[in-house]
Structure formats: C-alpha cells, structure tokens
Specification:
Layout: E1 28-38, E2 43-52, E3 57-66, E4 69-78, E5 86-87, E6 90-96, E7 100-105, E8 112-126, E9 130-134, E10 137-157, E11 160-164, E12 169-179, E13 198-207, E14 211-220, E15 225-234, E16 239-241, E17 246-251, E18 258-265, E19 270-280, E20 305-312, H1 313-320, E21 325-333, E22 336-348
Antiparallel strand pairs: 1-2, 1-12, 2-3, 3-4, 4-20, 5-6, 6-7, 7-8, 8-10, 9-10, 10-11, 10-12, 13-14, 13-22, 14-15, 15-16, 17-18, 18-19, 19-21, 21-22
Length: about 350
C-alpha cells in the first residue's frame, strides 16, 4: 500500500508518501531505545523497536538481566504500516509525546512479559548529529533525541513478578533515525581494504536530583573524536555546555569490561565518578551484530517470527564485552549522587588503554 494512516497527519518531510523515506539508502532506520534500571542494581532491562523502510522489515526486542541469567525475547515481521509500532507481543504506545510512553510485552511462551510506563524527568534534548564517512560511503548519518525518566509497572521474568516503582526504577531513552549499518551483511568490495584501527564508544546519560548530564565520547584509536556531548540540563530546560572532556577508564583484567571510570570536564571544574552496578550484555541476542542470523532489519521471512533465549551470563560476558555493553550505574560529583546508563564499547585497538 502506498497510502497509510500516517499520510492523514501533517508530518511529511518530502514529496514522498510516508511509506517512502526521502533516501533510497538501504541502511535508513527509525528506532526506539529504552533502558530500565534498578538503582540498587538488582535488574537491568533494555528494550528497543526499529523500522527499516528500505529493507521492508520491523523488529523489536527486550533483554532482562536478573542475577546470573539474561533473558531475551525478540520479534520480526515485514513492515507494512509505519504507524504500527508493534511487533508480535512487543509494542510501544506514545501516551503524551516527549513525556509519557508505554512499553508492553504481552504474555507469551517465552520467559519475559512486562507492562511499563515511562515518565520523563526533564526535557527531551537533541544530541549532536553523528556523521561518519568511510571512503566515499556514508556509514553513519544519524539524529537522536535523549531523555531521562522513571518507570512504573511490572516485569515478569521466568515466573517471578517484579514490581517496578518510579522512586527506585530510573532509566534513559532515545529516539534515533537516519543511516547506520543494518540488515544482512553487504559485500565489502573496495572497503575490505579500508584500515579500521578501532576505537571507543562511551555514552553516559545521568539523572541527579534537579538536573541531568548527557555525556558522549566516540574516540578513535588515534585520539580523534567523531562525536562528543557534554551538557548539563536543568529541569526548566536550561542547558550548560561543560566543554571538552577527558576520561580515565578501568578494566577488569582479561576482558573489555569496565569496572569504573572518572570523566572530567576541565573547563567546568567537574570530575564525575562512575560506578557500574549491573551489566546487561545488550549485543548478545538482540540484533546488534554478533549473531549472523539475527541483525537489526534482517529479513526473517514473510510471517511474524517470535523467539526467546535465556543465556547464562558467565558464558556470554567475554563475547558480549567485544560489543556494546549497558550497565546500570551510579554517578557522583560535588556532593551530587545520581543514576543512569553506563554504556561502552571498545573495538579493535585503543592504545591509550593497552588494547590491541
């Protein structure tokens, strides 16, 4: 169908129908991401849902870490209507844009179901555009909004019901869209000879008593930075630029897993101590590229596919640490104590930290 329900709203950004995005790049995507963290470190949940119009697919996932087990439910289907933000038992409801959303995983044959409502804490803010070109090919051209908040509702995992209260269950969310590598792997062609020395991704959105801090540092092996953000955002919407940052990360021996960090904002006189509470090995089983048979946007066939997997954390942590890892974490500076996401990935070489 060319005409879909979204065409009845004044949201068009080009002369195309909403079903047809303005670029023909196969890697165009439009995604939701949420995390749910217990401030005492008892559980860490991550959920996501994405649409991939030029691949004709949509998929969603939830991954729950409790104790030494990580439970994943994931689903995929062909994309027909972009106003439909559900995939099988997983769905998102936008109750009040930029303020209240709901994420539901209906009871199913697998280990996880949940019904959670998000309440924003402070404004949703724009993050810097990420633009990366590999040779002549644009690999990343993305835009994202971010927001801190709290959750209420219930999570059922392996038969146990967890009551989620907003006083102790916080999190961050983002909405991102644009171009990034997705779907089935493409032939590398000339890019197989492109030198990829590696680097670091670190993303720490933090919530404190009356403000939030949003920190991003994407740094190459040579120290160059492709994306930076260092902003303190007050509840009334005021934004302070904190200046260029420095980082000192600490690793667990023998694994690319952080045990703590100090990030510094020399221009603002701020040093933040970051303490991880519980890791969720997000890249395992959810589509972030470690499995050849399940990647974001990958076509899984003409019918709805729903799968569930339970992992033993000791068995996946080494592999999972080679890609993006999401921790629930505590952040402290100048008498302020907050909680938020401590997300990192170290790929290839990073000489600053002795990684080869």
């Amino acid at each position: 169908m060319t005409v879909t329900p979204w065409d009845d709203y004044p949201v068009h950004q080009s002369s195309n129908w909403i079903a047809h995005v303005a670029t023909s790049d196969r890697n165009f995507y439009d995604r939701y991401y949420f995390n749910v963290l217990d401030t005492q470190g008892r559980f860490m949940v991550v959920m996501g849902l994405g649409q991939y119009p030029n691949l004709g697919t949509t998929d969603a996932f939830v991954t729950v870490r409790v104790g030494e087990k990580q439970h994943v439910v994931r689903a995929s289907k062909p994309l027909v209507d972009r106003s439909d933000i559900s995939v099988g038992p997983l769905r998102i409801e936008v109750i009040e844009p930029l303020k209240r959303l709901r994420f539901v995983v209906e009871p199913n044959e697998h280990d996880v179901s949940l019904d959670l409502t998000w309440e924003g804490f402070g404004p949703a803010i724009p993050e810097p555009n990420q633009f990366i070109r590999n040779g002549t090919r644009i690999t990343f051209d993305t835009q994202r909004l971010a927001q801190m908040g709290s959750w209420s509702g219930t999570i059922t995992v392996a038969g146990e019901v967890i009551e989620v209260k907003p006083e102790t269950t916080w999190g961050s969310r983002d909405r991102s869209w644009g171009v990034r590598p997705i779907g089935e792997r493409e032939p590398e062609g000339i890019y197989r000879d492109t030198f990829k020395p590696g680097g670091m991704w670190s993303y720490f959105p933090m919530r404190f008593e009356d403000h939030c801090i949003y920190y991003i540092c994407s740094e190459g092996a040579d120290g160059s930075r492709s994306l930076e953000q260092a902003e303190r955002v007050w509840l009334d919407g005021r934004v302070e630029q904190l200046g260029r940052t420095e980082h000192a990360h600490e690793f667990e021996p023998g694994i690319r897993l952080l045990t703590g960090s100090t990030i510094s904002f020399p221009d603002s006189g701020i040093d933040i101590r970051c303490t991880p509470l519980l890791a969720n090995f997000l890249a395992v089983g959810t589509g972030y590229g470690l499995e050849p048979d399940w990647r974001h946007g990958m076509y899984q066939g003409p019918d709805l596919v729903v799968q569930g997997i339970t992992y033993e954390v000791p068995e996946i942590r080494q592999l999972g640490a080679y890609a993006v890892v999401d921790h629930a974490a505590r952040f402290e500076y100048d008498g302020h104590v907050g909680y938020g996401l401590y997300e990192h990935s170290f790929s290839g070489a990073m000489p600053k930290y002795g990684l080869e």
